[in-house]
Amino acid sequence: MRIGLNKKNINIKKFIALSILLAIFVVVLNLTGFSKNIKNFFFLISSPIQKSFWQAGKNVSVFFAGILEVRILKKELDDLHLKNQELLSRVVATMELKRENEVLRKALGLGLEKEFQLMLARIISKDISQDSILINQGKKDGVLETLPVITGQKVLLGRIGQVYDNFSEVILISNKKSSFDAKISDSEIYGVVRGEGNFKIYLDLIPKDEAIFEQGDVIITSALGGVYPQALLVGEIKTISKSDTDPFQKAEITPFFDIKDLDYLFIITAW
Amino acid sequence: MVKKIIFFIFIFYILTLIQTSFLVHFNISGITPNLVLMAVIFINIFNSSQWQKISSAVIGGFFLDIFSLANGLAGFFGFYTLILTGFSFFLKIILERYVRFPVVQKI
To answer: Measured between alpha carbons, how far is A123 from A262 in angstroms, rounded to an integer?
Structure first.
């Protein structure tokens, strides 16, 4: 029992001594400013390890933050997707307006608006089986059947076929249903332009004695038939075919329009 | 004993580095887990040697002081050493007087 008490006393003494030593050590370090040197030494030897720990901590925290914030991120991503689509649609709309503007400027440059009352339309699709296209103007926009359709360069495309509420069919001049009176430019040679399908057009019913026309002559519409306004460009003569038995001459015409290059066209509502 | 102290120095050095460089990225509402304090508490609860308890508090506090960049009272070198040592004694008193661990004794 006594031995135990002695041991306890020794321990208390040891502890007090240690505490005093520690207190002196601490006070000395603070008063002399040596603590800065000690700190600097530890910072120096620890900095490579601390760098690694810092980087690792950063990476791990980013990883966990990603997991924890995945819902928020997903929502933000969805919002951004929507915004992106909205902006994209605005960009597309602006580009469309720009192109439309260009087409209108070209048309105005030719003075088409002085000759005709025009309505701008856009091609939606093409009938794969026949030479017809669908445009984005219909009954609601004031489109009527048989109205002529031209390009901005005054090239005849065809006439309005069926009219729907918001859309209309354009029967191209190369359509088998299409035939109208035309003449060779700078001459008094008249004929009938017939569509043969597949974008092929023929100038038919030209009397045999009219031998003045030749390859490259430009065909324009005439006012005779009353279907189209006069002097719209149709195409140019590609080949001429004559037959001894046939009382008329026939010429294949290369149309001036290429449907692949067209986006906008004009419906002539009055002339 | 010397071996144990060297072990403590190594452990508390690493813990302080982890606390000051790694765990700062995981603070919750600005509070970073204090690994050194947790280790001191752990040693004080589960270690029977009084020397080891005090030395762990002194060494842990010393490393906290070294890597502390605080100003004012907390910037005083020895602040954490004194705090942890005092805490170790406080824990000792609490454990001795108020806590009993259930142990199975041989009859």
So the answer is: 8
